[in-house]
Design a protein that fits this description.
Largest sheet: 5 strands, antiparallel
Distance between the termini: 54 Å
Strand order of the largest sheet: 6-8-9-5-7
Order of helices and strands: HEHHEHHHHHEHHEHHEHEHEEEHH
CATH architecture of one domain: Orthogonal Bundle
Shape: globular
CATH class of one domain: Mainly Alpha
CATH topology of one domain: Helicase, Ruva Protein, domain 3
Length: 327
């Protein structure tokens, strides 16, 4: 009996923590509705009906203020570069080998990189998010002013996406930040980079793994993936004080292989001296780790603007590649 009472209490708390939406209280939502209606022809009556069923979720704001990417590197890495992720990644690769090979041929993005991104994003489609995307995006627009402009645009993009693709905006689920499907595309990326890769005349990143694979490859290709070029490599540093002068947390290359080499910073990755490069420092439990990264590393950060994210993708991809090569 106590168990059932506890369950009922928890359900009540969940309901109370999410308040219903009153559009008239939020001019920013009224503005979005008006823009969708006047600029895109989205029926205003439908939008008002949809928003009347939105529930604001304070837990979404709490979650976005504490992203995993803010963890120290050694803790962040343990979330994704694991025996389980590697094993499941190899299973995913074997199941979808033909599609991955076709994506690599068409877009030039290595199969192990595509698999690693999907592995980091959703554990190969096993964890695509439990939040209603419309609730999450609306909450972030009205309760997270620091990034209101970004999430306002994503809310518009999401409503246009569901309207264009014939999806019920109240049924689509995803992450607390509004990312969706097997590859966790935000709405603007879904609209601009998702492709039909299985020939059924639909772009379905939620239910079709083939479309997800093709869309990840297309996304990286469109962001100027360099075919056959490396992503990153271990850095050999002679003097920490000298190396730290080259370290950057900007999401772009700021040096060249030749300049780093002249400063006593080398890598096992063979590259022309003129190749753009950068040096990043990672916190490995209080001990600094240095890596030389290249242009393709920063293409991965277009997917998620985090050095930790791109490095986790790279390391998982490398582990997958080694397993595939070794058989």
């Amino acid at each position: 009996m106590q168990r059932y009472l506890l369950a009922a209490l928890l359900n009540m708390l969940i309901v109370c923590s999410a308040s219903a939406m009153e559009v008239a209280k939020y001019p920013v939502i009224e503005s979005i509705i008006d823009n969708l209606a006047t600029k895109h022809g989205y029926p205003k009556s439908e939008l008002l009906q949809v928003f009347s069923k939105v529930r604001l979720r304070p837990s979404v704001v709490a979650a976005i203020k504490k992203p995993y990417e803010a963890l120290p590197w050694n803790r962040y890495r343990k979330l994704f570069v694991t025996d389980t992720h590697i094993r499941d990644g190899m299973d995913f690769w074997h199941r979808h080998n033909a599609t991955l090979a076709r994506a690599e041929r068409k877009f030039g993005v290595p199969q192990h990189v595509i698999v690693a991104i999907i592995g980091v994003e959703t554990r190969y489609g096993q964890s695509m998010g439990r939040h209603r995307v419309l609730d999450s995006l609306t909450t972030l627009v009205v309760q997270y002013p620091r990034r209101r402009a970004f999430f306002s645009d994503e809310l518009e993009q999401f409503l246009l996406l569901t309207w264009e693709e014939g999806l019920d905006p109240l049924r689509v689920k995803g992450s607390y930040a509004g990312a969706m499907g097997v590859p966790q595309f935000i709405a603007s990326s879904y609209r601009h980079y998702a492709i039909d890769f299985n020939g059924d005349q639909r772009r379905d990143l939620i239910g079709q793994t083939e479309d997800a694979i093709g869309s990840v490859a297309n996304y990286l290709h469109r962001h100027r993936w360099q075919v056959g070029k490396p992503i990153a490599g271990d850095a050999v540093v002679n003097q920490t004080s000298v190396a730290d002068q080259f370290v950057t947390d900007k999401l772009k290359t700021n040096s060249t292989v030749a300049r780093l080499s002249k400063a006593g910073i080398s890598s096992s990755v063979p590259l022309n001296g003129a190749s753009p490069a950068a040096l990043v420092r990672l916190d490995n439990g209080g001990m600094p780790e240095y890596r030389i990264v290249f242009s393709n590393f920063y293409v991965i950060t277009k997917y998620n603007r985090s050095i930790h994210y791109a490095m986790a993708v790279f390391e998982l991809a490398e582990e997958l590649r080694k397993r595939q090569v070794s058989g």
